[in-house]
Write a structure and sequence with these properties.
6 strands, two-stranded antiparallel ribbon
């Protein structure tokens, strides 16, 4: 059963929220770029994750992904990126798209 996603964050006044955003973008970095990875609370290095804008939750997936890719083009991580995976932001979320560089 699919949940209905809000168009405003229910965890405060956030434009991007890891709980309310419908999609997440996982950035898979090239080999040897471990220093560019994020650190989780246990201290382990993990691939960077970015979330979609909450206000775009009800837009078609193609529109959301295009916007996320457009914003990511100017990110410093772009030149160290190998693959980007887009997932539904829910437990066991399905892979909805993949972009290779």
């Amino acid at each position: 059963m699919r949940q209905e996603y809000p168009i405003k964050c229910t965890h405060g006044d956030h434009k991007i929220c890891k709980h309310c955003s419908r999609y997440k973008m996982v950035i898979l970095l090239k080999n040897g770029c471990d220093d560019m990875k994020d650190t989780d609370p246990s201290g382990k290095k993990v691939n960077p994750v970015r979330y979609s804008y909450v206000s775009k939750n009800r837009k078609p997936v193609e529109t959301v992904i295009a916007g996320m890719l457009h914003r990511f083009q100017n990110n410093v991580l772009m030149k160290f990126t190998n693959v980007i995976h887009f997932y539904e932001n829910e437990p066991g979320g399905q892979l909805v798209a993949e972009k290779r560089f």
